[in-house]
Amino acid sequence: MNRRQFLSAASMAAAQPAKRPNILFAIADDMSWLHTGAMGDPIVKTPAFDRVARAGVLCRNAFSTCPGCAPSRASILTGRSIWQNEEAGTHASLFPRKLVVFPDLLREAGYHTGLTGKGAGPCNFKAAGWPHNPAGPDYDEHEIGGKKGLQISNEDYAANFDAFLKKRPKDAPFYFWCGSHEPHRGYAVGSGAKAGKDPSKVTVPGFLPDTPEMRSDILDYYQEIEYFDSHLGRILDSIEKAGELENTLVAVCADNGMSFPRSKANLYEYGIHLPLAIAWPRGFAGKRAVDDLVSFRDFAPTFLEAAGLKPPPAMSGKSLLPLLKNGRDSSRTFITAGRERHSHARRDNLGYPCRALRTKQYLYIRNFNPDLWPAGDPPLYADIDNGPSKSIVMADKGKFHALALGKRPAEELFDIQRDPACLHNLALDPKAKSALESHRAQLERILKTEGDPRVTGKGSIFDSYPRYSQMRKELGGFVEQGQYNPAFTPK
Fold first, then answer.
1. Domains, the chain, ranges and CATH?
2. Beta-carbon contacts of residue 74 (< 8 Å; ≥ 6 apart)
3. pTM (2 decimals)?
4. Residues 6+ apart with CB under 8 A from 28
5. Hey, what's the torsion of the CAs at 476, 473, 459, 69, to 10 degrees?
6. What are 120-132's pLDDT values in tens digits?
7. How far apart are CA 468 and CA 466, in angstroms?
8. Whose C-alpha in 194, 276, 396, 484 is 20 to 30 A from the C-alpha of 471?
9. Neighbouring residues of 350: CB distance < 8 A, sequence distance ≥ 6
């Protein structure tokens, strides 16, 4: 080939659009960041997650926008903070049809889209006018033959992916959301120990009592993580068999932290700091780890940019591709998170409004109504999922009971580098005054810029939103399922 022919061929190649990547998004239900092999856990076995981390980038500082599933998943789909998503920013409410979600944009651009397991939700998307779950059309026809001694879903996620792939139109790229119901409670008590896991190797977080029963409960949680990972492995094998793995962007994460007291439904580290591995062999180099702070509202613009689409202006997240390709992004110095209502856990169906700013060193939390019980009204404490760990903490009469169930001050500040368990509140420490003031001011600026009703004088609107899941009449006050609470509806 002479020079003219070479330049002509190069010009033609440059004129051809690059083949758009497939996208696999695999999300576990209730899993904190430390509990994978890639992060060094000595017990839990996650070969599929570790495979993605080796092929791509392990993000060691990745955070959900909320420590509860429905608002977190809505943020992933919309690329927005929970306070920007109206009813979808709270648990088990509506998912407004006007919200733009990345799976719809991919489908409109020619992607074959689908979902198995848990997508957006729990939420009532049908009442809001959606033709299917906002995460994609369902592929849930296949079920597993036996539950292997675990309290797990009947859905065979990997088989459902295979069914989805068979229906893909020729030459169409695919997007698939694999939403495992695991490791959400309940767990089969003693399943981890029965499988041969060693309780002596368990690291019990500092906010939980270190008892044999607690260690056993953590082992049971590990068993369900491994079940999720086994389906991820089968799906990766199917993509590889189809010859598509090199050009598939794979992202693996969870929606919120482990289902233990002071973790899930809390803005502390174990509630919002989550596992994340992303690989795309054709898009960026692998065998790397990054410590830049990553928000899960960044997934939507990332997937759209990878597909050659421009994220809409309504998305407040920003693409991760510069970080994934270059290995660093100097602008990623903080993330924000928040929560409103989780379960029906308080009189009048009130939530527990709080917001957080996480920087490299500190976690700052603002509790807007410190008179409320953060875990829900006693004696139910219904914002904590039932299980052995909850029973252990409720029976404790000392610091663990207070940490998980007691009321909290209006402001909290933790030095994450020294105190990842978030045990020592520095908000009243004179030595931390400068950090407290700077984090408070930065969070308030962000919330005002993003129009958070909690700082614009309209915060009660979150307590007006309907709840479609179980209501507990014994809590008293407003208990009308699926109805707006007129006491908090803006006039």
1. 20-327 (3.40.720.10), 337-472 (3.30.1120.10)
2. 82, 85, 88, 89, 95, 99, 120, 123, 134
3. 0.95
4. 180, 182, 183, 225, 228, 252, 253, 254, 255, 275
5. 150
6. 999 999 999 999 9
7. 6
8. 396
9. 341, 372, 463
